[in-house]
UniProtKB/TrEMBL annotation:
Name this protein carries in UniProt: RNA pseudouridylate synthase
Region (Disordered): 322-343
GO molecular function: catalytic activity, acting on RNA; pseudouridine synthase activity; RNA binding
Record-linked SUPFAM superfamilies: Pseudouridine synthase
Record InterPro entries: PsdUridine_synth_cat_dom_sf (IPR020103), PsdUridine_synth_RsuA/RluA (IPR006145), RluA_PseudoU_synthase (IPR050188), S4_RNA-bd_sf (IPR036986)
Source organism phylogeny: Bacteria, Pseudomonadati, Bacteroidota, Bacteroidia, Bacteroidales
Basic and acidic residues composition bias: residue spans: 330-343
Organism encoding this protein: Porphyromonas crevioricanis JCM 15906
GO biological process: enzyme-directed rRNA pseudouridine synthesis
Residues in Pseudouridine synthase RsuA/RluA-like domain copies: 101-265
Origin: domain of life: Bacteria
A Pfam family: PseudoU_synth_2
Length: 343
């Protein structure tokens, strides 16, 4: 099936276009204003400057307003049909990338990805949509993956229904890597292995053996490729063992949304801060799970894109925590304001 057409080009005044700086370009001609004039011979220099000033131009996906900015060979220059929104100023959200088809953001714990239950207004989708509508009232966002309210990391949105449906269908071909870091309480028997699809609660309750046998498997296990049976399957490796907690790197193998919290809970190794899983840190203010890396191919142009987030400093502090500190309920020293979120 073909990729959806880009949403660009529907506005009469400006038709969205993109160019790459050629290897044959002369070094002296690589200012942005000169490059744009050569690509847009029907527009005056004044008009091109206006397009730059009004944020219609990006270089390698980032809005550029400086006319004499120097370009490098191989860079991508785009003319957008709508002004590129300015950076969003929100304590829990950051836009990492956006174009006519995609928006990639990083969220911190404390905000839901989309509406759920009573929390329908204070969501990443609602806040981002409101921000974007100040530049384009017709814009809509569509969820591609989701993170729980009390976890953080990289979240993807599509800017059209066609893009959402296509990316969802072709997820395993488009998204090459989804990597999470997590702090669990305890340690798995093996330092590397597979997290299997979590079992139904009744099946887990009735299972008479070690509950971890339902979740963990050897690294060489060949699991079912059927999407319904392998959703949430992930590989893990232990990065570090602490006095009480373990830091894991987890790579999601199937599915758009992780089930790591449930997998760890059923294995008797809850994520730090997971109150429902029996964490000794119920007042942590978040769950120690972060989507730290996402690698994907752009659904329109095939460009490989990598997005990263740092492992939160809180995770390092948790690794220095011993089981005896469960009496204090938090490993965050005297910085009580940090109990509600991490950076």
């Amino acid at each position: 099936m073909k990729a959806p057409h880009s949403t660009s080009g529907s506005r009469k005044a400006i038709s969205a276009r993109q160019w790459f700086v050629s290897d044959t370009a002369e070094e002296g001609d690589l200012s942005l204003i000169n490059f744009l004039q050569s690509c847009l011979p029907d527009k005056s220099r004044t008009t091109v400057k206006q397009l730059l000033r009004d944020r219609f131009v990006s270089v390698d996906g980032i809005a550029e307003t400086v006319a004499n900015r120097s370009l490098q060979k191989g860079q991508k220059v785009e003319l957008h049909k709508y002004p590129i929104p300015d950076e969003i100023h929100h304590p829990l959200l950051e836009i990492l990338y956006q174009d006519e088809d995609l928006l990639v953001c990083a969220k911190k714990p404390g905000i839901s990805t989309v509406a759920s239950g009573m929390d329908r207004q204070h969501t990443a989708m609602r806040i981002l949509s409101t921000h974007l509508k100040t530049y384009n009232p017709k814009i809509k966002l569509f969820m591609l993956n989701r993170l729980d309210k009390d976890t953080g990391g990289i979240v993807l949105f599509a800017k059209s229904r066609d893009a959402q449906e296509y990316i969802t269908r072709q997820w395993t071909e488009i998204v090459e890597e989804q990597v999470y870091h997590a702090v669990i309480e305890g340690r798995p028997e093996e330092d590397r292995g597979i997290l299997l699809k979590p079992v139904a609660d009744k099946q887990n309750k009735d299972h008479k053996e070690d509950p971890a046998s339902l979740i963990f498997s050897s690294e060489n296990r060949i699991f079912n490729s059927d999407a319904s049976s392998s959703a949430g399957v992930a590989s893990y490796k232990v990065i570090r063992h602490g006095a009480y907690c373990s830091l894991l790197e987890i790579s999601l193998k199937h599915g758009r949304n992780n089930q790591i919290r449930r997998q760890m809970r059923q294995a008797g190794l809850p994520l730090a801060g997971d109150r429902h899983g029996g964490s000794i840190f119920p007042e942590l203010g978040c769950v120690a799970l972060q989507c730290t890396r996402l690698v994907m191919r752009h659904p329109i142009n095939g460009q490989r894109m990598t997005f990263k987030q740092a492992i939160p400093a809180l995770f390092r502090r948790l690794m220095q925590t011993s089981a005896s500190t469960s009496e204090t309920k938090t490993p965050l020293d005297s910085k009580s304001q940090e109990k509600k979120r991490y950076k």
